[in-house]
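For reproducibility, we list the full input for the zinc ion complex.
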Amino acid sequence: MQKLSLVVLILLLFNISNLMAVSPASVHKSEKDQVREIVRHVIESNDEFVKKLPSDYFAQLIHGQKPIATMVTCADSRLHTHALDIHPDGDLFLVRNIGNQVSTAEGSIEYGVRHLHTPVLFIIGHSSCGAVEAAMSKPAHLEPSIWRELDTIKVIGNKSDDHAQVKESVESNVNHQVSTALKKYDKEVKEGHLTIIGGVYDFRNDYSQGSGRLVLINVNGETELTEIHKMSIVNFK
Ligand SMILES: [Zn+2]
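The corresponding predicted structure, in tokenized form, follows.
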């Protein structure tokens, strides 16, 4: 009887120590669980999205697209189209990359402007842009592919921990991207077929207009806010 108790005790201790050990296999399982949760989140979000729609919703999308605007935004996860267009499906020909750049997405933008003939090209930066901050501070550890994609970001100064300088650099970059687009689409703009609008999605309330507001800072190269506000295309009062 005593022998049997000892065997049970040894077996119990062995199992407890096994449970307490963090083996590489259990770490692996936890990463797998994390991935499973992410995939579940996307699948369930998609399910919820589809279930809310009327049954004929996709009929209008099947035979092609006629978007109202080409929009270039930063790839940052804090900036999404639902903040700028409540129903973006079919509306926005969306191009995203780090730092909302024109040159690194030239073909995609050209398709929106010259083949889908969107009358507006939006270029939207955002507060606290990591790509802009990287272009300012130039951290040495970045991979060559990322360096190449920071090439056409135009910043002011190198103090990426200075909010005022980051705000100025975000603006400077949007304005630079607009002027790059103006050079390429000069004919379309002069003929009145295209309007190029630069803006900043301000989730940090840098412009004191409330967090999450879109602030327009450039219309076809005009950057004086008082002049922009006089334009009928952006004045809705
Ligand atoms: Zn960004």
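The longest strand covers residues 195-202. Residues 9-14, 16-21 have pLDDT under 50 and may be disordered. Both points were considered when choosing residues for closer inspection.
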